[in-house]
């Protein structure tokens, strides 16, 4: 009897009817001979509503209590789902993240999983139950406090449990039919990808693709857990994410896997930095010490007359204020002239392992953007990715132009977003 881990997002369990539909799908998997462990997100927009409520009560909620509040959403949906399954005549037990053995570090609001000890889950499914686990949450190893895993935390919970339980597959159910060559909300002719490697999926996730989050894919690659991304609103086959195509499916890896975009980043330019050893290190040490992650970095050639240069980098908008404050504290020590902050940018990325051996990809990418009248502000590349920063207003047009230029448009069906969010 194989063990399957299924994860259902908030749009899949947004209301009572959605919960009953998901319960039937879970029971069908049980009837097909599988042991089933389910990870569930909070219903619909519950988490966002709780965040808004916390903001009305306190402008800066304490991390411990904020996590305690946010985990309530998943506890509601896990209990309701267990009730719906029992109503269909099957045994089910619900578990919080801590009861499921999800052990994390002590960083509130964005904790990282350091271990999973699923003894209670294993015992429950061995007794014939369907185990329902609250996603997005765990318990800290030090202090035993409730923690949350940050954006995409339920996906990461599901893959971590799949690895700990030696599951055959981790099925991620969402409101689209799989991973597409672009965001189906932006490109109606985006094509569903039948299979994509962990490597390409990591790049897409890092570049803004929202159907799977980077941490989830990274965990799956580390433990070689195949992921099947599919819709809870249809019975269609989805997208397999793995090292190799699953079963007897022979799928040749495409030159280009897809186009991703991200409008959640901002750009900071440090103007007039003395061009001498150690200055860049001081800038990025200050950023690192403030706990801010950065993405793309570009340093201009210094002006011979002044000996000064500009350094630009991108980072999450939500952490912009923190980064500016950290840099201002170092201004006198580093000696830079000023800071410029711009949060009206978009990152457009072309991803594909095949581009390593296919000349002309870079030229075609830039030509497509040029033909669309899009100006490029920053450029970053790797062996399987080209990313540029443009104006935020140009994001959708850029994605559609590049998607068409590389022949990724579908000739038939339009991509469907069943729940309206693409996640």
How would you describe what is shown here?
With 423 residues, this protein is an alpha/beta fold. The protein is 33% helix and 25% strand. The chain has 12 helices and 20 strands. It has helices spanning 16-31, 46-57, 63-87, 119-126, 153-164, 198-206, 214-223, 279-289, 320-328, 331-334, 361-371, 395-405; strands at residues 3-8, 35-40, 92-95, 102-104, 113-116, 130-134, 137-140, 146-148, 169-174, 195-197, 227-231, 239-242, 258-262, 265-274, 297-299, 308-316, 338-342, 345-351, 378-382, 385-391. The strands form 4 sheets. An 8-stranded mixed β-sheet has the order 3-6-2-1-9-11-12-10, with helices on both faces. The protein has a 4-stranded mixed β-sheet with strand order 5-4-7-8. β1 (3-8), α1 (16-31) and β2 (35-40) form a beta-alpha-beta unit. It is globular and about 80 Å long. The model has no long low-confidence stretch (mean pLDDT 92).
Write the layout of secondary structure elements.
Elements: E1 3-8, H1 16-31, E2 35-40, H2 46-57, H3 63-87, E3 92-95, E4 102-104, E5 113-116, H4 119-126, E6 130-134, E7 137-140, E8 146-148, H5 153-164, E9 169-174, E10 195-197, H6 198-206, H7 214-223, E11 227-231, E12 239-242, E13 258-262, E14 265-274, H8 279-289, E15 297-299, E16 308-316, H9 320-328, H10 331-334, E17 338-342, E18 345-351, H11 361-371, E19 378-382, E20 385-391, H12 395-405
Parallel strand pairs: 1-2, 1-9, 2-6, 3-6, 4-7, 9-11, 10-12
Antiparallel strand pairs: 4-5, 7-8, 11-12, 13-18, 14-16, 14-17, 15-16, 18-20, 19-20
Helix pairs in contact: 1-3, 2-3, 5-7, 6-7, 11-12
């Amino acid at each position: 009897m194989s063990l399957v881990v299924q994860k259902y997002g908030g749009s899949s369990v947004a209301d009572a009817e959605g919960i009953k539909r998901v319960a039937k799908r879970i029971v069908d998997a049980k009837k097909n001979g599988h042991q089933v462990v389910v990870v569930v997100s909070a219903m619909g927009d519950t988490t966002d509503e709780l965040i808004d409520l916390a903001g009305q009560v306190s402008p800066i909620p304490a991390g411990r209590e904020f996590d305690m509040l946010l985990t309530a959403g998943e506890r509601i949906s896990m209990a309701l789902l267990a009730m719906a399954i029992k109503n269909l005549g099957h045994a089910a037990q619900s578990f919080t993240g801590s009861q499921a053995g999800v052990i994390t570090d002590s960083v509130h609001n964005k904790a990282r999983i350091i271990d999973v000890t699923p003894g209670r889950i294993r015992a429950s499914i061995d007794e014939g139950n369907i185990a329902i686990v609250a996603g997005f949450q765990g318990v800290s190893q030090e202090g035993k406090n409730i923690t949350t895993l940050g954006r995409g935390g339920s996906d990461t919970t599901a893959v971590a449990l799949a690895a700990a339980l030696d599951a055959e597959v981790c099925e991620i159910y969402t409101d689209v039919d799989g991973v597409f060559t672009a965001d189906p909300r932006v490109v109606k002719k985006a094509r569903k990808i039948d299979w994509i490697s962990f490597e390409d999926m990591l790049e897409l996730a890092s570049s803004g693709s929202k159907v799977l989050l980077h941490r989830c894919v990274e965990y799956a690659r580390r433990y070689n857990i195949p992921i099947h991304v599919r819709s809870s609103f249809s019975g269609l086959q989805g997208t397999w994410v793995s090292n190799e195509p699953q079963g007897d499916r022979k799928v040749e890896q495409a030159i280009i896997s897809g186009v991703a975009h991200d409008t959640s980043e901002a750009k900071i330019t440090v103007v007039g930095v003395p061009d001498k050893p150690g200055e860049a290190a001081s800038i990025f040490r200050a950023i690192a010490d403030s706990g801010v992650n950065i993405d793309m970095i570009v340093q201009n050639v210094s002006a011979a007359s002044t000996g000064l240069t500009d350094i630009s980098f991108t980072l999450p908008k939500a952490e912009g204020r923190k980064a500016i404050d950290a840099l201002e504290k170092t201004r006198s020590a580093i000696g830079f002239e000023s800071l410029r902050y711009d949060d009206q940018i978009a990152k457009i990325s072309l991803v594909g392992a095949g581009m390593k051996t296919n000349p002309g990809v870079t030229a075609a990418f830039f030509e497509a953007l040029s033909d669309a009248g899009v100006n490029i502000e920053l450029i970053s590349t790797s062996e399987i990715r080209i990313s540029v920063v443009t104006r935020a207003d140009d994001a959708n047009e850029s994605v559609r132009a590049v998607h068409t230029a590389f022949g990724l448009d579908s000739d038939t069906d339009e991509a469907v977003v069943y729940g309206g969010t693409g996640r």
